[in-house]
Amino acid sequence: MSLTRIEAFGAPAVPDGVSVVGIQAGVGQLTAYHAEPAGESRGTVLIVPGFTGSKEDFREFLPRLSALGWDVWAYSQRGQGDSVGPPGLENYTLELFAADVLEVAAIIGHGDPVHLLGHSFGGIVAPEAAIARPGGFLSLTVLCSGPHGWPGRHSDTSETLAQGGSIGLWNRDNPHTLGLADDSLTQEEAFLRLRAARTSNENLVSGAEILRTHVDRSAEITATGLPVLIAHGEYDDAWPVEWQHAMAGRIGADYQVIAVGAHSPQLEASGATAVVLDQFWAQHPPLARNS
After folding, report:
1. pLDDT tens digits for 168-221?
2. Of 90, 134, 137, 178, whose CB is crowded by the most CB atoms within 10 A?
3. Which domain does 64 fall in, by range?
4. Domain of 175: which CATH number?
5. Which pTM does this prediction carry?
6. Three-class HEC string of 86-152
C-alpha cells in the first residue's frame, strides 16, 4: 500500500476534512495533506511547496479547494519537515525533486493525469516534472515563481546554513524566539521553529543553489503542450513581477495577478487565490473514462 494515515506534525490543528498521509515513495516516506472533494470529484490536484516550506503552508487552503470539488493534495518535498531527508547533497538535485513529483502524482492519481501546482521553489520543481512526463498532468500552475535564478541569490542564506544549519537560519530571521520555550511562543511560531529544526540542511543548501542557477525553461514548458497558468500575488517580491509576466508571454500561458496577495497568496488572499485556480482548472477537466 503506497498511502497510510499518519500522525500530524507539530501542534497546529489539522482542519476538518483534511487527513495526514504518508506516501511510500522510492526515497522513503513523503508526508502529505489530503482533502477529499465535496461531492463528485472535478479532478485531482497536487501542490508542491517552496523553499523552507512544507505541506503545512497549504493547511488552511486545502479545504477551500475541496469545497469546490477538487481532490487536493499538498506534500512536503524530500528533506522538508517530517518527510524523509536522506543525507548527502547528491540526494537533492532538481532532477530528483522532480522525480518525486512524478512518483507522487502517479500514486495519488492512480495513474491518471492530475493538475500540478508549484509554489515558489516548487514552481521550479513542478515544471521539470511536467517537461519530463507531460502525459502525467492535466495542467501546470506556476505560483509566485520566476523563469530563472541570478548570481548571488540566497548567498547570505548559504553562509548562515554553513554556520548554523537550518535552525540557524530560523534563529537569524527570528531572533526574538532565541532561548524561549515553545509555550512562550505562539502555536504557529513554535511549529515553524520545529519545522526549521527538522528540515534537512542539504535540502536548503541545494535549494539555494538551484534558486541561484536554474535556467529559463519556457521553451520546454511550451513544448509540453500543457495548459499553463502563471500567477502571483500583487505584492510578490521573490521574483520581479515583470519577469513572471514576461515568462507567461513566452509560454503563451494564462496570467493572473492576485489582488492583495504577496509571495504566499494562498495565505494572504486565500479566497481570491482559490477563485483563480478554480477557474483555470475548470477549463481543463479530466477526460471521461471509457465505461
Report:
1. 999 999 999 999 999 999 999 999 999 999 999 999 999 999 999 999 999 999
2. 137
3. 3-282
4. 3.40.50.1820
5. 0.97
6. CCCHHHCCHHHHHHHHHHHHHHHCCCCCEEEEEECCHHHHHHHHHHHCHHHEEEEEEECCCCCCCCC
